[in-house]
Structure formats: structure tokens, C-alpha cells
Design a protein that fits this description.
Length: 234
């Protein structure tokens, strides 16, 4: 139960801070506005905060794709994976719901968006499905290589949270204009479901932000599980 609660809180925080930065600060003007770099750091710093806050309890996966990669690397059980994924999705939905409540109090200027992921005509850089799928799969693979690498036995664990957060920041800097960056099925599910009334297309496109991250994470997990990327034992 402690692990599930920790994962719920961690994913809640990631969605509230990351998507909140994109929607609230991203639609400001002048000194109240942030750009791609600011949004990227909001996601990355949320991970850093939670890595040190809940990491000792659950490992701070806050992402079903991360848990899937850890599972295939042989570092968690199927039962724990299911528990983690449920807690993460519920946390993301709760984070998006709180963000919705905050934004609904804005007098004007909010179009109903909650930082949903997407692709195609009318969405940010208007990249096509292939571009979106390739980015999400490859970026998640790289993210998991970092996570599984810095958390393996013998790695300097005190710096793991910082390395993981900065990797997520770099991924966002590159990919925000492509898909808004998911690399996390829960992060996509929460805003898509809560914001369905104003952006139903986000739900229709959810499959990509579930399938592509799981593929990328799965490949990384298999690389570590097979020993290909595991450090040699002293």
C-alpha cells in the first residue's frame, strides 16, 4: 500500500506541475510566460523532487512505461507492476482533475486544454503519426536506459534522481513540438480523460502514447534483463 500511495502522489505531482506549467505559465504574456525550456524544466524538476521524496518508498517510477521496463529487466514482479500502473494512472487523473479545477477559475483566455499529447494538423509542430511514434518510442528507450543504468547495483544512487530529471528535461526540449512529450502513458491518460469535453481527439490518439512508450521501455528493459547493458560485476 505504501508503494501505491507513493506512486499516486508522484504521478499526481508530475501531471500537476508539468502540465500546469505548459497550460498556466505557457499561456501567460511578458514576465508571466515561459517557453519550451521552462516547460521542460517543470517536468524534469517535478521528477527530481519526487525521486528524492518518494524514491526511498517506491523507486519513483511514476510512469507505467518505466515500471514495464523495470519488470522486463527482472527488477519487479508482475503483481507489483499492476499495482504501480493502477496507482500511476489514478494519480495522473487526479492531477489533471485538480489542474482542471484551477484553470476553470480563470476569467478568460483558457481554451479547455490540459496539456494533452497529440500529433497531426493543428497540434503544435504538426508532425505526422510516424514522427510522433518514432519520437515517443526512441525517447522512452533513452529515458529507460538512463533510469535502469543509474539505478543498477554499483551506480552512485545519490545522483540518480538528478540524472533522471535532467534526462526528462532534455527529452522535452527536443520533443515538445512533436507530441507535447509523453514517454509516460499515465501522463497522457489523465489530461486526455479529464479534458475529453473540449479535446476529444486526445482520447482518440491515446493509443500511440500507450503503445510507443511501452515498446521503447520494453526494449530497454530487455537489454538490461539480458545483461547487455548491465555493468560487469566486480
Amino acid at each position: 500500500m505504501k508503494k501505491a500511495v507513493a506512486e499516486f502522489i508522484g504521478t499526481f505531482t508530475l501531471v500537476l506541475f508539468g502540465c500546469g506549467a505548459a497550460v498556466i505559465a505557457g499561456m501567460g504574456t511578458g514576465p508571466t510566460s515561459i517557453d519550451i525550456l521552462g516547460i521542460a524544466f517543470a517536468f524534469g524538476l517535478a521528477i527530481v523532487a519526487m525521486a528524492y521524496g518518494i524514491g526511498p518508498v517506491s523507486g519513483c517510477h511514476v510512469n507505467p512505461a518505466v515500471s514495464f521496463g523495470v519488470l522486463l529487466a527482472g527488477r519487479m514482479s508482475v503483481g507489483d507492476f499492476i499495482t504501480y500502473a493502477i496507482a500511476q494512472i489514478l494519480g495522473a487523473i487526479a492531477g489533471a482533475a485538480v489542474l482542471y479545477l484551477i484553470l476553470s477559475g480563470k476569467a478568460e483566455g483558457w481554451n479547455g486544454g490540459l496539456g494533452q499529447n497529440g500529433w497531426g494538423e493543428g497540434y503544435l509542430g504538426q508532425y505526422n503519426l510516424t514522427s510522433a511514434f518514432v519520437f515517443e518510442a526512441v525517447a522512452t528507450f533513452i529515458f529507460l536506459v538512463c533510469i535502469l543504468g543509474v539505478t543498477q547495483r554499483g551506480a552512485p544512487s545519490q545522483f540518480a534522481g538528478l540524472a533522471i530529471g535532467l534526462t526528462l528535461t532534455a527529452i522535452h526540449i527536443v520533443g515538445i513540438n512533436v507530441t507535447g512529450v509523453s514517454v509516460n502513458p499515465a501522463r497522457s491518460i489523465g489530461p486526455a480523460l479529464i479534458g475529453y469535453g473540449t479535446a476529444p481527439h486526445a482520447v482518440a490518439q491515446l493509443w500511440l502514447f500507450i503503445v510507443a512508450p511501452l515498446i521503447g521501455a520494453g526494449v530497454a528493459g530487455l537489454f538490461f534483463g539480458s545483461g547487455l547493458l548491465e555493468a560487469d560485476k566486480a
